Amino acid sequence: MKYIAIGLGFNLFWLLAVWGQYQYVGILIALLIGCWLFYHRSCPFALIASVIGICGDYVLSQLEVMQFPLPQDPLFAPFNDFIPLWLILLWLGFTSMVWVMREQVQKLPLWGAMMGGSLGGAISYWTGLTLGAVIWPYGELITFIGIAVVWSLYSGYLLWLLQMMTKREIA
């Protein structure tokens, strides 16, 4: 039951970030802080794990594989040259959720984590496309496949990092 609640909570977080974008940044930050206060080790894991995802999205945006609509609020304009703040917060929320669910995630075989992450990540970005949060100039099929490959590698990295940081927590 705990993991179902966590999964539903993350889906709400995802929806606030992707569908709401800049409207709910304050709520996203408050939810992250709450998670990090309750699960202390989720913060360091999220900060380390999110760097590769955030940088990967930055590279994809610089290669124009993904484009993001510009924010209407000038407060968020500085993120125009990087990636949207809501996407950075989404990465932090996702990796925090992975830490909280680490017992279940670590039970997955490497191939299972990579396959599930590959499809889940690509479907998540495709859903963001359908909600207008991202634009795929190269078309849906080729971009979906590319994102699936990237997420497969990212999922393997996350599993490895979970194992390394869990060992450090025990030691």
TrEMBL record:
InterPro entries referenced in this protein's UniProt entry, alphabetically: DUF2878 (IPR021306)
A Pfam entry, by short name: DUF2878
Top-rank lineage group of the source organism: Bacteria
Record's keyword terms, sorted: Membrane, Transmembrane, Transmembrane helix
Transmembrane intervals: 12-38, 45-63, 83-101, 113-135, 141-162
Name recorded for this polypeptide: DUF2878 domain-containing protein
Lineage: Bacteria, Pseudomonadati, Pseudomonadota, Gammaproteobacteria, Vibrionales
